[in-house]
Amino acid sequence: MLPKTRNLLIRLCGLVFTVAALLLAGTHAADAHDVLESATPAKNSSVASAPSSVELVFNEPVDDGFNEITVLGPDRTSHWEAGATTVRAETVSVPLRPLGPAGIYTVGYHIVSEDGHPVSGSYTFTLTMPGEGTPAPQVQAAAAAPSTTDSAVPVWVWIAGALVLLAAGVVVARRIAR
């Protein structure tokens, strides 16, 4: 191999690796999903009067993708949501119907992190004094959360693209070296 060709090959490989490293260094960590920081009513709390809504606060902004909060009554089947789930930065909330029987209510949530990954969980709170409310009709409970799609490009697509470019650079460099 000629010295000029060899130097060109070394420079080309160095350029490809430098570009790939810069592309990968600019990506966000894929494991930094949103974490529930606080809730109203609070986790494992006891409340004497029914709250008018459930409000969840996460450590990072929540994406406008599919987000849902459900509130199940003590029978674990009746829904108590009174409208659609709304998102304001790190806060996700849903209005509630007046609660009914005393007992343990389960708050379930499914949100989309800003990085595009779904996060879900649940917790309970106890209503100590019965209210006079009735649960949502079965059809209304199923339609409580709007179905939207997430249009953001996940980080893994950018990483895969960088790896494909890196592989293409290696193939071109090897052909030039021949």
UniProtKB/TrEMBL annotation:
CopC domain sequence ranges: 33-127
Signal peptide positions (record): 1-32
Entries under SUPFAM superfamilies matching the protein: E set domains
Subcellular location: Cell envelope
Keyword terms: Copper, Membrane, Metal-binding, Signal, Transmembrane, Transmembrane helix
Key word Signal present: yes
InterPro entries according to UniProt: CopC/D, CopC_dom, Cu-Rt/internalin_Ig-like, Ig_E-set
Pfam families in alphabetical order: CopC
Highest rank taxon of the organism: Bacteria
Main location, first listed in the record: other
Ranges that cross the membrane: 155-173
Keyword Protein biosynthesis set for record: no
Name listed for the protein in its UniProt record: Copper resistance protein CopC
